[in-house]
Design a protein that fits this description.
three-stranded antiparallel beta sheet; 36% helix; elongated; 7% strand; 3 helices; mainly alpha
Length: 113
């Protein structure tokens, strides 16, 4: 099934990228019946030097959650990609890559708008 957001032949994006009025966070709205309450947002990854040390989603929290859950037998038995044991170093690198990919895609979408 083709994505309603990205054309597989032309790589044009629909609907356009939106920005939250309060946080200025980029998002893609979901069509009804899911939208407007559910939004597709980029990863919320903050580096360890975040200007707000009380930020609700620090990278340490994400890393700890990834390591914990990827090392549970009832989860990793269904995964084929990540290494085992899943380490903090791997989780940090994975998060950095996903954030970089998201920022590049957001930049591409902004240029097309």
């Amino acid at each position: 099934m083709a994505s309603p957001f990205v054309s597989s032949t032309t790589r044009t994006f629909s609907p356009p990228l939106h920005y939250d009025e309060e946080t200025n966070e980029p998002y893609l709205p979901f069509p009804p019946p899911f939208g407007p309450r559910i939004r597709l947002t980029p990863p919320r990854v903050y580096d360890q030097c975040s200007p707000n040390p009380d930020a609700p989603n620090k990278i340490e929290d994400d890393v700890a959650a990834l390591v914990k859950h990827h090392n549970l037998p009832e989860i990793y038995m269904f995964l084929t990609g990540p290494p085992r044991p899943y380490t903090e170093e791997y989780a940090k690198e994975w998060l950095k890559k996903r954030k970089a990919e998201s920022l590049a895609l957001i930049g591409e979408m902004d240029r097309e708008a």
